[in-house]
Amino acid sequence: MLISGARGKSKLWENQGIQVVVTAYNTSEYLERCFRGIENSLKGRKWILVFSNDGSTDDTLERAVFLSRNFKSHIVNNPKAKNVSEAKNKNLELTHRFKEEYPAVMMMDSDDEMLPDRVKLLDCLVETNGLFAVGDYNLIINGTVNEVVLGKLPDFMRFPPSATLFHQSLVREGEKFFNEDFLVYSDIVKWWTLRCIENIEILRVSGFFVLNYFKRKDSVSFAHAEENIRKVKDYVMRVSPAVDKA
């Protein structure tokens, strides 16, 4: 188990509010499941939804406004970004507004579902005075649950984006959080950058924290090209020589 940060007294997690960051493009039909999962998982916690509509052509924006009427939210409507990384970067810029009251950042895909135990990621970081935590997730393919255990994934996929939580201080003002040169899995690129270049240790927490509907036919992940996956793997191999090259 890797633990980031020093143990002992610190104001790092003095406030334990959570920003749930959701970026959406034409996912109106999935938002109710996504928002319901967030509400159910964070009952009794202090949290805010930070939602960005990425130039959707359906009623995603209107649906988000309606579904969030009973909890605290900050919703913006942005023009269509060039790719997912740029869209998420725009949304993460908003987290600076709420960082004092909500220093924990949970990112969610708008077509996935959060599970109640995900708050354990925050609890573990508070206990260890850490900056970043990752757990396992359930991959949903054609309605069937497939448990994705990180230890069984190829090494370069060891830090998937689906079940993570990190301190907002990692989102630096004036810098792009995700590398926009990567069309897919820029999240994985970022986690390896934090670990191997910035020496941020990552806390691995046991448990399944997200239902990941990876195989939705119109999702970016489903439609990814092999050369983009190879680009991510090549980057990870460069920054971490220990990564399996198979």
Notes on the structure:
The N terminus is likely disordered. Helices cover 26% and strands 24% of the residues. The chain has one domain: Alpha-Beta Complex (Spore Coat Polysaccharide Biosynthesis Protein SpsA, Chain A). A hairpin with a 2-residue loop joins β6 and β7. With 246 residues, the chain is an alpha/beta fold. Strands 1, 2, 3, 4, 5, 6, 7, 8 and 9 form a 9-stranded mixed sheet that branches. The chain has 6 helices and 9 strands; from the N terminus they run βαβαβαββαβββαβα. α5 packs parallel to α6.
Summarize the structure.
The chain is an alpha/beta fold.
Q: What's the overall average pLDDT, rounded? A: 87
- Rg, nearest Å: 17 Å
Count the domains.
Answer: 1
Q: CATH class, please?
A: Alpha Beta
What shape does the CA trace take?
globular
Count, helices: 6
Poorly predicted regions = 1-7
Proportion of residues in helical segments:
25-40%
CATH fold description: Spore Coat Polysaccharide Biosynthesis Protein SpsA, Chain A
Strand residue percentage: 15-25%
